[in-house]
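Request: When convenient, would you put together a sequence paired with its structure tokens?
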Amino acid sequence: MRTIGEGDRVLFVTQRGKRYLVSVKRGERFHTSEGYVDLDDVIGKRYGSRIKTNTGSIWTAFEPTILDHVLNFPRITQIVYPKDLGYIVLMSGVRCGSRVVEGGTGSAVLTAVLAYHVAPHGKVYSYDVNEEYLKNAEKRLESLGLRDFVELKHGDLTERIDERDVDAVILDIPTPWLAVKPSYEALKDSGIFVSISPTIEQVIETVDALKESGFADISTVEILLRNMRVKRGMTRPEHLMHAHTVYITTARKSVADSLDR
């Protein structure tokens, strides 16, 4: 049984369904439109405990997941959304011990999720051409205890990828088709390529390059997410939905000369 201590982060889910990620500090109050909570009162409680605000609103104090943390990162670039993150992790086969090349560190949301999955025995090699993005990523990863599982690299992987025999290459860059050949050289046999693109023109260029470069099992999907409003006798889809964010293209490295063996 784990209890909440000073300095821990807590995810408050309010009676109205609002979500707040808060660092617990003695002597401080956390204010919202639904009232405030004295953080002293949270210390020593079990995760999952219910807490009453000064206005009588009932909140629950949950232990944050990796997703709760990364969704609170400063959005210095467009982020990869949860509905896409899960598919990328599954399709790439990333797991504890994997070695993964990431192209486009950006806000480090995908970087952190990949690091969480490869830890403690794997490594993420994350490339970006913008040094400020890399400095930001370093701070975010350190705050989550994931810094040791990521090598941040200032460079353009459309020109060169240093690593060899990696399990997966995952790209979130404007011109992924230019990184297809370097990705092929970096991947192990049967290794997995993933590219995230907001426009179909990028997808077409990338798929053509994959076909020309010795990749097989090529697929492109778009994931749409629609929440449900559940109430007895009135259940229906919500009017707003998470529709297009990106197209996700996946492929696997095939061995070009294997028919001659």
User: Anything to note?
Assistant: The chain is about 25% helix and 30% strand. The chain has two domains: 9-64, 68-260. The domain at 9-64 is CATH 3.10.330.20 (Vcp-like ATPase; Chain A, domain 2). The first helix runs from residue 66 to 70.
